[in-house]
Amino acid sequence: MEKRIFSGIQPSGRLHLGNYLGAMKNWIPLQDKYRCIFGIVDYHAMTVTYTPKEMEKRILDAAVNYIACGLDPEKTILMIQSLVPEHTELAWIFNTLVSVPRLSRIPTYKEKIQQHPENVNMGLLDYPVLMAADILIYKSFAVPVGEDQLPHLEIAREIARKFNTSYGKTFPEPQSITEEKGMRVFGLDGVNRMSKTLDNCIYLDDTKEDVEKKLATAVTDTARKRRTDPGNPDVCNIFNYHKLFSSKNELSEVTEGCRTAKIGCLDCKRILADNMNRELDPIRKRQKELWKKTDEVKKILIDGSEKASEIAKETMREVRTKVGIGLRKKS
Ligand code: TYM
After folding, report:
1. Is the pTM of this model over 0.90?
2. Could you give the count of Cα atoms lying within 13 Å of 308 in the half-sphere of its Cβ?
3. Which residue among 149, 192, 199 is best mutated to probe the pocket of ligand 1, counting the most ligand atoms within 8 A of its Cβ?
């Protein structure tokens, strides 16, 4: 059987550098090695309050970014979760294999109910079960994600094990693929993970000037009070970004310059802004082109979802037989 990979992003707002460095950028090389399926997980995005009229725009925005960052619909399946209803069908079956106390101990659930005390809905609790279904409906052996998603992957492995023990070997236990460098990108505040909820992001559609402005006010080594004070790159978030965008030579120059106060934070940020913009420029250019042909983007998603459906239907046929629901032509 072909080796399959699944990953996805929620269409819950503009995509940011955390999504790019923790996920999408790492998906690109996988396209040549495996059968990759990358989803836009719109059911997941419904677990927090949203405006229905904006959802389609967000789905398209995610798709535009997927393609602009280098996902190739010729090689890879790009799909929308809700267009393949087998995801939610399998999630229902998986619901019977995991306990409520287990789900309520997951850190992201605890975080979400703190952030949205007015909307503690079942979907928030069930979120990792649907995610397990997203992955296992394609029998994916691996899932490229950022560090924050690892507790969810653990649930997917537990569900796969439980299913296999209860009904016979069916699913692989999916492994995570995380890249050391980008697995936890901090926000401009230098303290929290980059996240749209915290509004501490550089977005993939920020302009060159936006990037410069945002970096200019971003938190650095807080102990460095004056331009003449030496700084410590080890505790500076700007240096973390340098590791993701700058060359080895620049890294040593910046390290040396900072420790000896030869360069100030603003000089250091200017070098970073140039490097960041160099990487983001072609993405922004492709975004603009793709926004002019959204019909093509929609077709890519519809075709991709149809291809995904074929695999998903086959898995569901097998699952229904194994768990004994419905009727078969011959008993
Ligand atoms: P989402 O939409 O929150 O994030 C999408 C991807 O971006 C990564 N990411 C980050 N990585 C590093 N640093 C950050 N600051 C950062 N912020 C976001 C996330 O780790 C993720 O890989 N539950 C998932 C969506 C999902 C999914 C799936 C993923 C649904 N079903 C099945 C994989 C497989 C989520 O909320 O991602």
Report:
1. yes
2. 33
3. 149
